[in-house]
Amino acid sequence: MNQPPVALVPRPAASLILVRDTISGMEVFMIRRSEEADFVKGAHVFPGGGVDVADASVELAAYCEGLDDFEASRLLGVERGGLAYWAAAMRECFEEAGMLLAHDERGEYADLNQPQHVEVFAQWRESVRAGRATLADLCREQQLRLAVERLVYYSHWITPPGRARRYDTRFFVAVAPTAQTPSHDNSETVDHVWIQPAEALERHRRRELHMVFPTIKTLESIANFPTAEALMKFARSPREMPLMAPRVSTTREGRKILVPGDYAYAEVGRLDPDGKGAAVGEIIPGAVVRLSDKVRRITAPNPGFMTGPGTNTYLLGAGGDIAVIDPGPAIDAHVEALLAAAGARIRWILVTHTHMDHSPAAALLQAKTGAELVGMPPPPFGNQDQSFRPDRVPAHGERVKLDGCALRVIHAPGHASNQLCYLLEEEKLLFTGDHVMQGSTVVINPPDGDMRVYLDSLRQLQGEDLAWFAPGHGFLMDKPQEVLERLLIHRLMRENKVLKAVRGAGTATPEALLPVVYDDVAPGLHPMASRSLLAHLIKLKAEHKLVEALGKWSIA
Ligand SMILES: [Zn+2]
């Protein structure tokens, strides 16, 4: 049994991102670990390490200024012991870099550069590092108080499972003391540098600096702040702080590490709960992805501006007869891939709506298999697949019985008037078609697209017990209720922008409103945005908030 030990419980740790302003921009402090270090050998990192017992001492807590354990624990979302993370970040920074974020009796950062201090604090550093003294001893003897309120909690990372060493690390950010000169300890750390985040990333790309994933992601996240003050202001603002628990996936280019916010993150977590790294982290047209015992996905080779990585076709069934959801565009290679995967066993072809990227392959696939076509007929507009002739039009709420399972039909008009979602109740998994898609805002294109109806259809889903969205474009999405909340907020914020723009203009054409309302959207996307703008205007007119005369809009 020569397997490496698997650390089941990650060790609590803390890391400190020190920044300072210079005339050429904000810099961050990094140290290089020695090749002999027992963790991340040779890497450039921020000072940090494991939380020690002494970091949680009651005496040390008494020397912490402006923050107690109750408030620290609340900030970190732990029951107790939060303050120890702040203390650990400060201790590690003192041990590894010689910088002490402590206040003297004036309430200022201690001036360690004074000649009479240099030798004294060098000895304290050595004693703390060797475990002969604690930070509490240092504070007592030197009349110092730890400036904990200067360290702002920044992010939370956990090492993926399956590694020999796992850390549960809280990152903090602080502005560095000016009257202190950093130095490495020549033992665990062999070099130190003040560097602009963008330059550190560039040197990493040139393979001049070795860095680990959380360091790289942290540098990316701070690289665009012009000043330390701007970064601190952001760090102190209320914001979402997702747990950064990286997941390892496989792509054609090799291993890819994912974090929350990456599109494949939720799906990789579902398919590879033990973190073995074999789940595929990209969408490959034509490849069969097994999402559960009953559900497989094959993506059509039609990636693009409106279709993202391509249209998803789902195959439903285990062993027996198969149902196809959204056969996709009329592309022979895709139909061949579906036949290769399910062939003669295809008995039902369900369509979510009849846009040209979703249903045209239905007729081709039916000709080969004789399957029953299920869905709503196309509305009479140009961008609709008029070849789609359903054998069965299911009603809202109806359960379509398949082999060994059933799908509940949810009529969800808005993007398309004939949009159906299909709920696999046993997995709480909703096939959304284009009602919800990953990574982009659904275009509402009047007259078939209807904003008011679309928002009502989103609200309708808020009443459903859902665990996953299987969208027409993109990976599986988790936390569907959070997704719905965000979509609704996004649309209502846009609507407020429309009202504000009309109010500001007095009276305006849609062309004049477009660049104002969509000032956050790239101009290349404005032609599509103009359709959604029209949908907003029509909604507001129906609600008697706006009036239209001769193509010009004003407040009602
Ligand atoms: Zn689509």
Number of domains: 3
Low-pLDDT residue spans: 1-5
Fourth-tier CATH superfamily name of the largest domain: Nucleoside Triphosphate Pyrophosphohydrolase
CATH class of the largest domain: Alpha Beta
For the residues shown, what is the average pLDDT?
94
User: What is the alpha-carbon Rg in Å?
Assistant: 29 Å
> What do we call the CATH topology of the largest domain?
Nucleoside Triphosphate Pyrophosphohydrolase
**Percent of residues in beta strands:** 15-25%
Number of helices: 15
Distance between the termini: 77 Å
The oligomeric status of these chains comes to single chain
| CATH-level-2 architecture of the largest domain | Alpha-Beta Complex
How many strand segments? 25
Structural class: alpha+beta
Question: What is the 3D shape?
Answer: elongated
> The biggest beta sheet, please?
7 strands, mixed
Helix content: 25-40%
Bound molecules: zinc ion
